[in-house]
Amino acid sequence: xxxxxxxxxxxxxxxxxxxxxxxxxxxxxxxxxxxxxxxxxxxxxxxxxxxxxxxxxxxxxxxxxxxxxxxxxxxxxxxxxxxxxxxxxxxxxxxxxxxxxxxxxxxxxxxxxxxxxxxxxxxxxxxxxxxxxxxx
Amino acid sequence: xxxxxxxxxxxxxxxxxxxxxxxxxxxxxxxxxxxxxxxxxxxxxxxxxxxxxxxxxxxxxxxxxxxxxxxxxxxxxxxxxxxxxxxxxxxxxxxxxxxxxxxxxxxxxxxxxxxxxxxxxxxxxxxxxxxxxxxxxxxxxxxxxxxxxxxxxxxxxxxxxxxxxxxxxxxxxxxxxxxxxxxxxxxxxxxxxxxxxxxxxxxxxxxxxxxxxxxxxxxxxxxxxxxxxxxxxxxxxxxxxxxxxxxxxxxxxxxxxxxxxxxxxxxxxxxxxxxxxxxxxxxxxxxxxxxxxxxxxxxxxxxxxxxxxxxxxxxxxxxxxxxxxxxxxxxxxxxxxxxxxxxxxxxxxxxxxxxxxxxxxxxxxxxxxxxxxxxxxxxx
Lengths: 136, 380
Prior knowledge:
The complex is a heterodimer of chains A (136) and B (380). The two termini of chain A are 27 Å apart. Chain A has 136 residues and is mostly beta strands. Helices cover 6% and strands 36% of the residues of chain A. In chain A, strand 5 and strand 6 (91-94) form a beta hairpin. With 380 residues, chain B is α/β, with parallel strands linked by helices. In chain B, 32% of the residues lie in helices and 18% in strands. The longest helix of chain B has 16 residues, at 25-40. The radius of gyration of chain B is 19 Å and the shape is globular. Chain A binds chain B through residues 3-9, 12, 37-38, 63-70, 72, 74-75, 78-79, 81-83, 91-95, 103, 108-109, 119, 125, and chain B through 119, 121-122, 124, 126-136, 138-140, 142-147, 150, 191-197, 241-244, 248.
């Protein structure tokens, strides 16, 4: 059983096209420079419609998490549900892969790098792994 | 021109709380409403305003036989009832209606006659949260707390103390679901649900309901119970996505709704005799104390652990035992309101003495919304 698969809307299509191409795409306001997530065709900071999509660095840090003990059909054993603070500012939910799912291994503020898991022809899901050079 | 004052003149919970498989969710609304009618000495014929969440006001009004001239179906989670009080206040003050009924009923445990929850894979949550495996509130509402622990030095033991203290209150309440004393060790040794949250740091899941009746102060003396005056109210919403909270260590909705309610009431922190902070999980009273300004953010865990909110403490909080020990149907806000009214009336099982001012802070969704009501034994 796989993860629940996201269904894009017109406003989020560019994000999922990006993950399919191996890019984490964010949006930046041309008027106030605000970088934001989740996607929408206007700036939540100043209401401007003059926004542009750009490829983010894919770097971030572990902001917070829980380790769920509840059974989930897509996960084996306890798994971390994480909040990742992206280098560009926005925060997103994700999972941390290539890392033991324990409080000892999951250290707040550890540097992370995006990676993508293919769920379907259309959807690749952004996940994060410890950044290169970090012990996992 | 000063607006008329408004008071709660009827308040009651369902006859039974806990496991009530013999009642549908709609009947839980009605059972609470009938008990509130009896408390106020009225019938459905006297009601001309209806507010509810969980069921539609249409369903509740028709089921009870009410023809309302004012309705409010604001449904932003467990604090909806605090917000209904705020909206009813404005409606009563401006003469849109004369007597408002607010109901809650939820078959949270038994699931009798309860609508199903269907996720939508194209919603923002469906696209950007659900794929990562959150399994309901215990794995989502809890997400910010490790950040709070790192930023403000909150310890696992202090978090556990929230549950310990609330059990002390519950021990005095015959209607509380769990009444046996617990220790920090009991909490930390209870089953892990979602690290760092153990079973005893998560709310109960029960059936039940409650109802309030409000009217203007000029009519309040016509009712048999002492009125609980509405001194101030506040409301706000932040985000439906826990991952998008502005600040993982503070609820923006709390910090809008709470201070607004206290300012409207014209009270300071020192005036507060009794406090309710919706506790779906153990960290909520810690966030609430800080966002209401009762203590510094870094001191909130110690404030509770040192007994300030416990029986005999200077700020009695969650005196019914809270969602952690009393009951939690899903949308707990109504029970927090009921306890504030009991304390103002002076008939709570764990009465805090003469209670002149009670502050009742609710949360909706997972830090998604908030409503706050300040009650007084005397009008403003």
